[in-house]
């Protein structure tokens, strides 16, 4: 049974200044340039907690939270709350709205089949986030999960709440409007807990945070005489129905730094794909992918030429897929790209992130990385459907890293959750 609970939120007060100067993107989306920009906005900017620039970053984050709480820059609510969160944004000129809830979710190991991952994780970022948890004993950012609500019970309930005046409204630097509503009515809290108890949850963003929280929970249990109600048994989570119309996934394109596109490579690719030359422009490449979004389609760019690839035969390719699930379930574009194009045709070995393989969130950025010499080949893909992510995750199988980009990310800095030993939920 899934257990969600209200929590006593910690948030900025008016003393901190303009909220627009305080909020940030999630820590793993903050580039060194953006980090400097955030630091310049305010001495209380949230980047100073989630990604301090100082060498002693964990100690710096811990000291800042204590000072800000003591000085009234941060305040902790007396009454437990569940939040309803709404983002309004544009994608390809289309107006979108996404609504979800923010609550304390009990931490479940993956083997309990309550919470499922969908991507591969790495040790280094998990160690980093675990060190942050140890230092500050706070959930600074939510984990983003999806669940299924085919009858729209929660969809309708959350939408009804958003008809009232929000507690917070703010627009981030990317033009996304964020609003949250506080739910403290006991009847509404009871209803939300009841309708969520039989749900299965899939992590869309925050795998490293979730797995770090599990490790932190286990450490705290070893150190303390713990109870089921201890806050460290939970994590602050943002949960969205997979049926939500505004649940948008953007593609994450792959770039290889060493491989080259030769005549032999093209001939090898023709064994699996129908290849056509495409004008090497952002518009032409995006048009090719969009017109073939119901097929297994890719584009390749090498700095001077671009090609569109359409898979010929799923059966032949399925035999080359390296995965622990039924072949038909694993025929996802990013898996075909990894197991057939990279491993079978290009014969690349293990790809280390930022060394052998780079990622780009837009077609333009991918082309620029090749043109600037940062990479030799760009492989452009269509986004993975949210429903596909949902289905595959529950087969206990993970997509390659950086397979999805659920957009937009929940903004960081609106709320945090206390998980210190004495905090109870």
What does this structure look like?
The strands form 4 sheets. Strands 1, 4, 5, 6, 8, 9, 10, 11 and 12 form a 9-stranded mixed beta sheet that branches. Strands 15-17-16-19-14-18 form a 6-stranded antiparallel beta sheet, with helices on both faces. Strands 3-2-21-7 form a 4-stranded antiparallel beta sheet. The protein has 2 domains: 4-248 and 408-418, no CATH class; 252-382, Conserved hypothetical protein from pyrococcus furiosus pfu- 392566-001, domain 2. The mean pLDDT is 92. Helix 3 packs parallel to helix 4 and helix 4 packs across helix 7. It is built from 13 helices and 21 strands. The chain starts with a strand and ends in a 7-residue tail after the last strand. With 425 residues, the chain is of the alpha+beta class. It holds the Pfam family DUF1015. InterPro entries: UCP033563.
Could you outline the blueprint of secondary structure elements for this entry?
Layout: E1 4-5, E2 9-12, H1 32-41, H2 47-50, H3 57-70, E3 74-76, E4 82-91, E5 94-106, E6 115-116, H4 123-136, E7 138-139, E8 143-147, H5 153-161, E9 168-171, E10 177-183, H6 186-196, E11 201-205, H7 207-223, E12 234-241, E13 248-250, E14 253-256, H8 263-269, E15 273-278, H9 282-291, E16 297-301, E17 306-311, H10 314-318, H11 333-345, E18 357-360, H12 363-371, E19 377-381, H13 386-393, E20 405-407, E21 416-418
Parallel strand pairs: 6-11, 8-12
Antiparallel strand pairs: 1-5, 2-3, 2-21, 4-5, 4-10, 5-12, 7-21, 8-11, 9-10, 13-20, 14-18, 14-19, 15-17, 16-17, 16-19
Protein name: DUF1015 domain-containing protein
Pfam family, one: DUF1015
InterPro entries: UCP033563
């Amino acid at each position: 049974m899934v257990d969600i609970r209200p929590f006593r939120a910690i948030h900025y007060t008016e003393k901190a200044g303009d909220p627009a100067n305080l909020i940030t993107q999630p820590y793993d989306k903050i580039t060194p340039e953006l980090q400097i920009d955030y630091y310049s906005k305010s001495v209380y900017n949230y980047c100073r907690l989630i990604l301090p620039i100082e060498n002693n970053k964990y100690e710096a984050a811990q000291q800042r939270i204590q000072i800000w709480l003591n000085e009234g820059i941060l305040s902790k609510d007396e009454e437990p709350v569940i939040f309803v969160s709404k983002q309004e944004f544009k994608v390809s000129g289309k107006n979108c709205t996404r609504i979800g809830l923010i609550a304390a979710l009990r931490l479940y190991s993956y083997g309990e089949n309550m919470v499922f991952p969908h991507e591969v994780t790495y040790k280094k970022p998990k160690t980093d986030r675990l060190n942050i948890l140890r230092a500050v004993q706070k959930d600074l950012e939510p984990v983003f999960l999806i669940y299924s609500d085919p009858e729209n019970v929660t969809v309708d309930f959350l939408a009804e709440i958003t008809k009232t005046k929000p507690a917070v409204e703010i627009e981030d630097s990317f033009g996304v409007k964020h609003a949250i509503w506080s739910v403290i009515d006991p009847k509404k809290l009871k209803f939300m807990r009841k309708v969520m108890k039989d749900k299965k949850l899939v992590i869309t963003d925050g795998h490293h945070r979730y797995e770090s929280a599990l490790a932190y929970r286990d450490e705290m249990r070893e150190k303390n005489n713990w109870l089921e109600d201890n806050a460290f048994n939970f994590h602050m989570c943002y949960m969205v129905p997979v049926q939500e119309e505004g649940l948008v996934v953007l593609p994450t394109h792959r770039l290889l730094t060493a491989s080259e596109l030769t005549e032999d490579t093209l001939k090898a690719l023709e064994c699996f794909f129908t290849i056509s030359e495409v004008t090497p422009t952002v518009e032409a490449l995006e048009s090719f992918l969009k017109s073939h979004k119901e097929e297994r389609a890719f584009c390749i760019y090498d700095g001077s030429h671009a090609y569109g690839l359409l898979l010929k035969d799923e059966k032949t390719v399925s035999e080359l897929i390296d995965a622990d699930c039924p072949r038909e379930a694993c025929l996802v574009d990013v898996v075909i790209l990894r197991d057939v194009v990279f491993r079978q045709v290009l014969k690349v070995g293990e790809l280390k992130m930022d060394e052998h393989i780079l990622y780009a969130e837009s077609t333009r950025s991918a082309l620029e990385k090749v043109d600037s010499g940062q990479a030799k080949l760009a492989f452009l893909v269509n986004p993975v459907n949210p429903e596909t992510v949902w289905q595959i995750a529950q087969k206990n199988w993970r997509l390659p890293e950086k397979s999805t980009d659920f957009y937009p990310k929940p903004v960081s800095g609106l709320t945090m959750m206390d998980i210190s030993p004495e905090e109870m939920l």
